[in-house]
Amino acid sequence: MITDILLLISSISALLGAIGMLRFKDCYTRIHAATMISVGGVMLALVVVAFEYFGTVYSVKAILIFIFFALTNPVSSHVIVNAAHRTGIVPENLKKDDLR
Amino acid sequence: MIALAWQIFFLAAVIVIVRFILGHTFADRLIALDVLGQMMILFFIYLAIENSTPIYLDIALTFALLLFIGTVAVSKWIRKEGVRR
Amino acid sequence: MGNLFRQAGTFLLLYISWILFTYSLNFQELAAGLVMSLVVTYIIHNFTDFSIADYFFNPFKAANFLVYTIVFLFAEVRSHMSVARSVITGKTNPAIVKILPDFKSELGRALLANSITLTPGTVSVAIDKNLYVHCLNYRKDEKIDFLFTKYGRKVFL
Prior knowledge:
The complex is a heterotrimer.
Chain A: H1 2-23, H2 27-52, H3 57-86
Chain B: H1 2-22, H2 26-51, H3 56-81
Helix pairs in contact in B: 1-2, 2-3
Chain C: H1 2-6, H2 8-22, H3 27-44, H4 59-89, E1 95-99, H5 106-118, E2 122-127, E3 131-135, H6 146-156
Antiparallel strand pairs in C: 1-3, 2-3
Helix pairs in contact in C: 2-3, 4-6, 5-6
């Protein structure tokens, strides 16, 4: 029961992130929606697997994938944004800019 | 409940593919490609939950590893070369 | 060479994770894991002057890390709500903010930037001595890094 609700929350979170990627204006705001897909979609689904097969081999494997994903996903996101900023894509309508 | 989750998930994947076609700078396309890879991982996890055969988790792990290496390599190359579009 | 002995914790962590991934106590698996962990540890010790495993085998730091994880979970849920609201209404308020983490260790700054990027709504754009964060909903009165630096100082300093 609780796993079904968590599964539905994960898919709805993936849908909201995808709509956000379509709606936002520039790539710096789009990556927030991408983070929402990867954390709210993939990592929540891994938690669902770890609950559903609790105490078996596969829950251990799901927790290990969870840790691996939590360590590597911010690195790739940061590298993309850093490359975009280095090649001169300016973020739109900023309220405050310390990096200038 | 898993059938409804499948439908919402495929709608989200179609929207991300539209973003990949539309995006006009390289960073938009790279973000969309990264997210498509993560949606592939999500696909395999849903398959593992639906069929109750969690052997698909190995495929998901391998895919996550290769996706991370590929994204970092491509964006480091772009940062060095300075390609704009 | 002295650095190689400091990486014993790293070797132990790699070997434990190998055993968990293969999940068997067969002799061939154990021998292959031993060789691979030794090779990876020898490659790693040229690049790093710290050991990640110091954080996992120290019970005081591990308890602080647990508290940090719970705080991080609440911040995660709250910022998910915020970004979802911003997606539905379409109103954004972006800004790039400078943060001075003043952590001494490289590992502390790296993990702070990691956990800032992992919450949706904030992503770290550049790191030199300071940390430059692009945030989606910027308000003047709210300090975005308050929770992370306050609790992370106990763990990562």
